[in-house]
Amino acid sequence: MNPTDFQAWSRETATRMEAALGDLLPSKSIAPSRLHDAMRYSVLDGGKRVRPMLVFAGGLVSDADPARLAVAAGAVEMIHAYSLVHDDMPCMDDDVLRRGKPTTHVEFDEATALLAGDALQSLAFQLLADNKLSDDPAIQLKMIQLFATACGSRGMAGGQAIDLDAVGKSLTLPELEYMHILKTGALIRASVLMGAHCGRPMQAAELEHLDRYGKCVGLAFQVVDDVLDEESDSTTLGKTAGKDREANKPTYTSLMGLAPAKKFALELLADAHEALKGFDARADRLRQLADFIVHRDR
Amino acid sequence: MNPTDFQAWSRETATRMEAALGDLLPSKSIAPSRLHDAMRYSVLDGGKRVRPMLVFAGGLVSDADPARLAVAAGAVEMIHAYSLVHDDMPCMDDDVLRRGKPTTHVEFDEATALLAGDALQSLAFQLLADNKLSDDPAIQLKMIQLFATACGSRGMAGGQAIDLDAVGKSLTLPELEYMHILKTGALIRASVLMGAHCGRPMQAAELEHLDRYGKCVGLAFQVVDDVLDEESDSTTLGKTAGKDREANKPTYTSLMGLAPAKKFALELLADAHEALKGFDARADRLRQLADFIVHRDR
């Protein structure tokens, strides 16, 4: 698999994902239509779809059915979208621009944004329970458990809470890393494993390696985010740039400096590749995705 | 089973539930501790625990293991608590008093309340996937699907969205009923079925009757809520009384008048009993619960 292949694959995956999300989300014509409109607005037509790609790439390792992967990836992306909707609200980060569009509470209203986020979380779990994702229902329950843990107070939501508490404080590097392993990392790690679980039963050692890959890529994703937030302008980024710095939030660049942060991202990339060394060519999309995540420019 | 028995049973169930919720919720000593503190504050030490009682009573019909019922009831109560936390926020109902205590965003802050609600929803699904609730994992997946649907945009969250849209509007009685069947009714209906699914496999007809019971009780619960909101003061109610009237929200009492609303509640109670007529004495707690819900004074 060469880089040109990867670009084509990622475009195809993004297109397939957009169609799947459109089908998985309730239509605007179904009541309550304003809520459904807000849910669709929050999820569709935007984002890099990194997490869905990790689900699909994880699924290639276990020869998973793409139809199953589309559902798992859809659930992951709905959780990601709901977290952004709530994170952008005035009582959290108070952001008005996301993916180049007004944030959901600006486009609709705060109450609708709150409920759209809530309903997207419910929908994610509904999809994971309602569709056959594994030949073994017990494995599917395990997937839901793994996924819910990644979303909750000891995963993504917990990371956001630590992030809030950190404003104006001087975190140490290990504290910053812990926050991001929860806030961004948990869902990214879960994405890889969710994809892998959709296929043939995986051995514990395989799952451990994939989890280590996910942990490295999740952290690298955040380090690169901080670097881009420091270096880019809002137009390129599609969201308000330099915001973390202005809000006096600790970032990798503020704690380490720009050049060491870039070096750290490359080390994490090397670790991610190391974690995959026992896998054959079916893990190449995961390898290419790690490269993409670290070398992206927005 | 006589009424005295029922009082003892409901006290025992509430006590058991409080202990179970205390165990199921993450300890304050686990990071992020402020978030876990807010989650515990939002769920523990309060509420009538009507939904958990419906889970336990539903489980009696199918001879379900009380340990399983405690988990299912815990998940239902966490969803109920999260919906109250979000509903009380300034961008929704902007309420400062709940169960006789300051609401979560008042006691903590808005961002923490938002995240605590989000994390409670995740935890509910985590519990339902992580604990054995049925001998058949496929039935357990069905339970999660049923439950997620009751929480989402075509259940509780959807009902709240319709409620928001209804402020200052004149709804018809069928529109009001539709709103409440989603907003309050969906979770109450799911509670009965979740309990029943924890035991022996139920036949489709049995589940249909239980669902009809749940629908009647769910609606009756809301009608009685409106009656109490009209007749009580805040001290008795443990929340701000007369608020819906002041907010110009349509209620059963405002649309029907007080006496017809009381009569409607009694009709729904009769329908609930009718739905249970094919069940033996194991459904008596459900019968008594319906009586309690309609005849309660707060």
TrEMBL record, chains A, B:
One of its GO terms (molecular function) is (2E,6E)-farnesyl diphosphate synthase activity. Gene3D superfamilies: Farnesyl Diphosphate Synthase. The keyword Magnesium applies. The gene is ispA. Belongs to the FPP/GGPP synthase family. CDD domains: Trans_IPPS_HT. It comes from Usitatibacter rugosus. It comes from the Bacteria. Its EC number is 2.5.1.10. The keyword tRNA-binding does not apply. It is an enzyme of class 2 (transferase). One of its GO terms (biological process) is terpenoid biosynthetic process. NCBIfam families: FPPsyn (NF045485). One of its GO terms (cellular component) is cytoplasm. This is Farnesyl diphosphate synthase. Its cofactor is Mg(2+).
